[in-house]
Amino acid sequence: MLRTAVIIILSAVFCLVSKAQEKAPAAANPSPPNQSTGTTPAASQSSSQGSPAAATSVETPEAMAHKYIDVWNSGNKAAIDAFADFIMHNHGGRAHVGPAMLQRVISAWRKSMPDLTFTIDDTVVQGDKVVMRVTLRGTYKERLFPESGDPQSPPRLIHATGLLMFKTGEGKIQEIWQELDEGIMRVEMGAQWKTRAELSGDTTNSQPKQNNEPSASAPAPKR
């Protein structure tokens, strides 16, 4: 009898424990783990929100520099209007360039050379700076520089090289240093080298200097 009573009591205890486990809060195990990842759906959602892929992608400095070359090659007005303001350094000068000014300059160059194309020959990236060695090609159809000649038939083919350095930051191009060989472009467009006196129409001072006259490029003798 005693043995039978013990068995009955133990069976009752096991039944009570089993029912208590079934009534435990659902939060203890809200959902079964994902069989492929070993994580619950909630943990998976949290992981995706904090992953780098979910963050907004930021263009690299090189990609921003490529976009600048692309707007010159395409002349696309919408792309130019979307371009952020930047500072241009060119032949020692400095100018604040916005979309309106960029549009005027690109339009003038592409009107002179409708097939204007910049080819990127080399690219060097260092931190937030990008340097590109470029080659410019185009067919001269309309006067671009005041001293360049009139377009001829057949049209002249223009070929020049240059360097561009971009400084980027805050997701945009902030500054550009540009050195294009515009001297060779002017010659290829029919320009002729003239002295300042010849350009002003005064030929009396355009004669070669005598041997006893100091050269303009040589330093004056010390006294």
Task: Please characterize this protein's 3D structure.
This protein is an alpha+beta fold and 223 residues long. Strand 1 and strand 2 form a beta hairpin. The chain starts with a helix and ends in a 23-residue tail after the last helix. It is 34% helix and 24% strand. A six-stranded mixed β-sheet has the order 2-1-6-5-4-3. It contains seven helices and six strands.
List keywords for this structure.
alpha+beta, 6 strands, single chain, 223 residues, Nuclear Transport Factor 2, Chain: A
Strand residues, percent: 15-25%
Assign the structural class, choosing from mainly alpha, mainly beta, alpha/beta, alpha+beta, or little secondary structure. Answer: alpha+beta
E-strand count: 6
Strand order in the largest sheet: 2-1-6-5-4-3
Count the DSSP helices: 7
Helix-strand blueprint:
Elements: H1 2-22, H2 41-49, H3 61-74, H4 77-81, E1 86-90, E2 93-97, H5 99-112, E3 117-126, E4 129-139, E5 157-169, E6 172-180, H6 182-188, H7 196-200
Parallel strand pairs: 1-6
Antiparallel strand pairs: 1-2, 3-4, 4-5, 5-6
Provide a compact summary of the structure.
The protein has 223 residues and is α+β, with helices and mostly antiparallel strands. The protein is 34% helix and 24% strand.
